[in-house]
Specification:
alpha/beta; single chain; 3 domains; 520 residues; two-stranded antiparallel sheet
């Protein structure tokens, strides 16, 4: 059995640390308007070493030779634990726009100092943190004695981001002589989860949150990422990548025109019900697609189920690249499980770094899924729908999720948002402070055949909502070719509304789309 290479996992985590940048070098780079007339530093960078913050040590203060900004590294501890949360803060020496921006991580990576450069160039004071451990492995959770390291787990789940925010705001006030007027958090995947955890646990930390493909429901979706492996082990039938790709392409082709536009994008893949029996008997690569293959695909798309058909979690939508969670390799074929999910089982559930999915039956999967649900929901589930404290202090959030997410099913974000609506007084009241946008045709990194708003436009949208009281009634999305030329524009509307083609004009022009409600 092989897992995704560690280098690939780190690349995925880097993509997930923020909203994926458009491929074009001409992507819009907006600098938010300054909020203070005089935003120059009131002290020398070295004076920041004297700033006193509880349980915090200022490790270093330096000028970044690449952009001339002040960079601070600090360590936060939580006595009596012997943990160490590294915090990285970037402070513009000139042109501070009066705001603080926290950046999230991806996978088990809490965050990276490399994520500060873009925000600092736009005038933000910015922060990131390793949330208490280095690297992208989940091994930090398990001690050499075989016992869970609960302080480190809590640091990664929620404390580290709060620590970074506290330290960042304190250094901003010391350096510029005034606090940030507004604070924003931006993250995708784990970063998206971190942003929503801030709203749930520390609602005073941020005024605006951009949460992309959020890894909420962590205790449910992450073990469910191994469901495809359990299905194939139980069926004794590992499906090749060629067959997975053939089924993905066929499902896309079958459901593409449902929205009235043939463009290689299924606008509502959740409702796509194409059955892989259509491929049975056809030649795919050097083998034939079988009924056993079709049954495996059906179970993967259906999602994790327990004894008696009990619903556990959602499956990937039809049209999603399944090779991350249903990966296979070798000859004869064997499973290649998703590395982040495998680490979750190894270090958080089974407590055995050598455990693998070779003998992972559906029955054992269900038992381990139950354990994950019971043991970690309160710590890292991040699925509390009560956002009243965040709402009442004026906080605003935009949640986005790609409908072809190949790691975290978009249905989980829909489920959470619907629960927020029920908890917070209904759809209209929820839309006053939180809006969900679903993005057709893109994956976990917002890459694919579908247009996306891009990070600059999203930042503009959350700032206008927080500072000017202008909620995002739509987001303008673009698709660019390899040379950076815009080849398609589409509007995105807040859930549950969708973009509807008016029936005339180019389908690549957003002027020919209007807001429509989804089918019942």
């Amino acid at each position: 059995m092989k897992t995704l290479p560690f280098k690939v996992l780190l690349i995925n985590a880097a993509i997930a640390a923020g909203f994926a940048q458009p491929a074009s070098p001409t992507a819009r780079d907006s600098r938010p308007r300054p909020l203070y007339g005089d935003a120059a530093p009131v002290c020398a960078p070295e004076d920041l070493r004297k700033v006193s913050i509880p349980n915090t040590t200022i490790d270093s203060v330096a000028i970044d030779p690449a952009d001339g900004s002040c960079r601070v590294i600090a360590t936060v501890t939580h006595p009596p634990a012997n943990d160490r949360v590294k915090v990285f803060i970037g402070l513009p020496m000139k042109g501070w726009n009066g705001r603080f921006r926290g950046n999230g991580g991806g996978g088990f990576v809490g965050g990276s100092p490399n994520s500060l450069r873009g925000p600092v160039a736009q005038g933000f004071a910015a922060g990131a943190t390793d949330t208490g451990h280095e690297g992208g492995s989940g091994s930090f959770a398990l001690g050499a004695n075989g016992r869970l390291k609960w302080q480190e787990i809590r640091d990664n789940a929620y404390l580290g981001i709060h620590d970074m925010t506290v330290v960042g705001k304190a250094l901003v006030k010391a350096f510029y002589g005034k606090p940030p007027r507004y604070s924003y958090f931006v993250g995708n995947s784990t970063g998206g989860r971190q942003g929503l955890m801030e709203a749930q646990r520390y609602p005073d930390d941020y005024d605006g949150i951009l949460s992309g493909c959020p890894a909420i429901n962590w205790h449910r979706f992450l073990p469910a990422d191994l469901w495809p492996q359990a299905v194939m082990v139980d069926a004794r039938n590992f499906v090749s990548k060629a067959k997975l790709d053939a089924a993905t392409a066929a499902a896309t082709a079958a459901c593409d025109a449902v929205d009235g536009v043939i463009d290689g994008v299924v606008d509502d893949p959740i409702r796509c019900t194409w059955d892989p029996k259509a491929l049975v008997g056809t030649k795919v690569g050097d083998s034939t697609f079988t009924e056993a293959d079709a049954d495996v695909l059906r179970q993967i798309w259906q999602g994790a189920r327990g004894h008696g058909g009990r619903f556990l979690w959602y499956g990937m939508t039809r049209g999603t690249d399944l090779s991350a969670v249903a990966g296979t390799t070798g000859s004869p074929l064997a499973g290649r499980p998703f590395g982040i999910a495998l680490d979750w089982f190894r270090y958080f559930l089974v407590h055995d770094p050598k455990w693998d999915t070779t003998n992972l039956t559906r029955a054992e999967f269900e038992l381990l899924w139950n354990q994950s649900f019971e043991q970690y929901g309160a710590t890292i589930g991040t699925d509390n729908p009560n956002l009243s404290r965040f709402r009442d202090r004026g906080g605003k959030m935009i949640i986005m999720h790609g409908l072809l997410d190949h790691q975290i099913p978009a249905q989980g974000s829909i489920d959470y948002y619907q629960r927020v609506q029920r908890q917070m007084g209904g759809a209209e009241r929820t839309a006053e402070f939180a809006r969900l946008f679903l993005v057709p045709g893109v994956d976990h990194g917002f890459r694919g055949a579908g247009p996306t708003p891009g990070p600059a436009r999203l930042m503009d949208a959350i700032i206008r909502w927080v500072e000017d009281g202008q909620p995002p009634e739509r987001l303008d999305a673009e698709l660019r070719d390899k040379e950076g030329k815009v080849i398609r524009r589409r509007p995105l509307y807040p859930y549950p509304y969708v973009a509807k083609y008016v029936g005339r004009g180019s389908t690549d022009d957003d002027a020919n789309f209007t807001r429509g409600s989804p089918p019942p």
